[in-house]
Known about the structure:
426 residues, globular
Amino acid sequence: MEHITLLIGIVIVTALVFDFTNGFHDTANAMATTISTGALRPKTAVAMSAVLNLVGAFLSVEVAKTISGGIIDESAGIRPEVIFAGLVGAIVWNLLTWLAGLPSSSSHALFGGLIGATLVSVGTGGVHGSAVVMKVLIPAVAAPVVAGLAAMAATRLTYRLTRHRDEADTAKGYRAGQIASAALVSLAHGTNDAQKTMGVITLALITGGVVAPHADPPLWVIASAGMAIALGTYLGGWRIIRTMGKGITDIQPPQGFAAQTGAAATILASSHLGFALSTTQVCSGSVMGSGLGRKGGVVRWSTAGRMVLAWGLTLPAAGAVAAGAALLATQGTWGVTAVAVLGLGVCGAIWAASRRKPIDHTNVNEGPAEEPVGVVTAALQTVSPPPAGTLAAPVTEPAEPAAGPDGAAAPSTPAPRNKAATAATR
């Protein structure tokens, strides 16, 4: 076995940087609903999530094996500089979507980067197409749909079971349930996402002849990947937390509990099967499902549409950036240096842009402006009317009474109520 060269060391450091961005990019997956409902203080929530991400990194290596030997063929002539280019593409896309506050998939950014760099450097023979379809693309489509349907059903069941209970009596129990389910999502996130970086580092070690092909990640790789993602999680991706907690739908404690429980079950099952699932897509799908499951709930479809568009662009966009980086990196030492300098410049520019309108734990719960009711929302409200006791139509408020000569309010006649509102109150 060879010693770790300077280039492999650069790849390892870059992989850990990606893992760090993965952590703060995906903090919202576990903690957005818990923070938005007030179940936990923002800083407490991200600290708990960071610790459980670290613990989860040690629970399994199945996803890491998928990355190191399932998607990319390490025997096809993949060199460390190719992996470096793939990581640069993934990091740039992660930071761009973080700046926009869009919960895109860090997993698919990594896959797209590795695939794009590999296609440019060694051709289609370096990518296992069937593995990409079976373990990446199909789960990418199915997982958010399954998680969304499960969360919608769980939310409706939860409200039905507690429909005769006072909301104040159940709120405390739901908040406790949210904390437990958020902890489970954090643990599941560690078992899935931290392993992706483990797989990339192991792939780099294999291509450099440091470890044998198809080897499990060494213990130091597992520990370093777990610590990197935990540190990123603790810093908190507040922009994406705001989008998931306030931008998609207004979440109540029962919805948060249902969404997080369904997401955790989906992620843990996929980790056990070795599916490198996008935890972002699963958790976002669960949040949308919980919005549809509550009567009178409104999903902000403009935000959801931008989010789904980002999901579709992630693989090709990260792949395109990585392909360009690979063209430079494979030219030799100067090419690797150029990619590193350009990557640092782009990341620095994104960070500077984010400082213009900073979002942190002090303003993360300041939700966006209400979205106008559109065709989809109106149709859903028709089949899922507001809960009993809620007015079916707004009541026209009386005009402010004019002041009399002595400064007292003059008597006024209240404005008439519309027929729909009157009927709803009878």
